[in-house]
Amino acid sequence: EPEVTQTPSHQVTQMGQEVILRCVPISNHLYFYWYRQILGQKVEFLVSFYNNEISEKSEIFDDQFSVERPDGSNFTLKIRSTKLEDSAMYFCASSREEEKLFFGSGTQLSVL
Amino acid sequence: DQQVKQNSPSLSVQEGRISILNCDYTNSMFDYFLWYKKYPAEGPTFLISISSIKDKNEDGRFTVFLNKSAKHLSLHIVPSQPGDSAVYFCAARYSGNTPLVFGKGTRLSVIA
């Protein structure tokens, strides 16, 4: 069964450093998403991406965040200058039109 | 501002009995509702969904009920199995391919 793949599974970084979280969505999906879950809290929407551009983003997705689909298969989330409060599990998801989302296993980001 | 609320953080059920997980929402514009299941160290996996034009959807042991007037939905699992032990997230979205809004989740423990 096709799945969404995320790398790395764990990322530890120093505050102020840049991180790039990588995702390979399911190949025939058209919509791509990043969500995150801070420990003990709900899963929160960050951004959705369709047709090579951001279609929607939340308040969390400020200027420190960016997304890219550099080569037609990978989908990346970049945090330019990490803060302590960026520590969370980041989930990539993809979907076809009007259907359920398929999530990856997540990247646990720890900012020290 | 919690648009999707799961008021029970945890639930314990005996194997073979029925598990009922509840979810309330505040926004009447939501028109599609989903349940996701999450095991530790994995991403959420889709379980079952329901459109706002229906009041019940069944898939094997899983049934989702929607009461639009009460803005309430519930997930019934019968019979419950130990492998059902996981965190269950209720999610909702507006029409079109809009971001999912998640509840905080309910941890279900099925005791053998």
What's the number of helices of chain B?
A: 0
Q: Indicate the structural class of chain B.
A: mainly beta
Q: Helices and strands of chain A: which structural class?
A: mainly beta
Coarse shape of chain B: globular
Number of strands of chain A: 11
C-alpha-based Rg of chain A, rounded: 13 Å
Helical fraction of chain B equals under 10%
SSE topology string of chain A: EEEEEEEEEEE
Using only CA atoms, what is the Rg of chain B? 13 Å
Low-confidence stretches of chain B: none
User: What is the beta-strand fraction of chain B?
Assistant: over 45%
- Which percent range fits the helix content of chain A? under 10%
Detail the poorly predicted runs of chain A. Answer: none
- Major sheet summary line of chain B: 6 strands, mixed
Strand percent estimate of chain A: over 45%
| DSSP helical segment count of chain A | 0
Q: Largest protein interface?
A: A-B, 27 and 22 residues
Write the layout of secondary structure elements.
The complex is a heterodimer of chains A (112) and B (112).
Chain A: E1 5-7, E2 10-13, E3 19-24, E4 31-37, E5 43-50, E6 53-57, E7 65-68, E8 75-79, E9 88-95, E10 102-103, E11 107-111
Parallel strand pairs in A: 2-11
Antiparallel strand pairs in A: 1-3, 3-8, 4-5, 4-9, 5-6, 7-8, 9-10, 9-11
Chain B: E1 4-5, E2 10-14, E3 19-25, E4 32-38, E5 45-51, E6 56-59, E7 62-67, E8 72-77, E9 86-93, E10 101-102, E11 106-111
Parallel strand pairs in B: 2-11
Antiparallel strand pairs in B: 1-3, 3-8, 4-5, 4-9, 6-7, 7-8, 9-10, 9-11
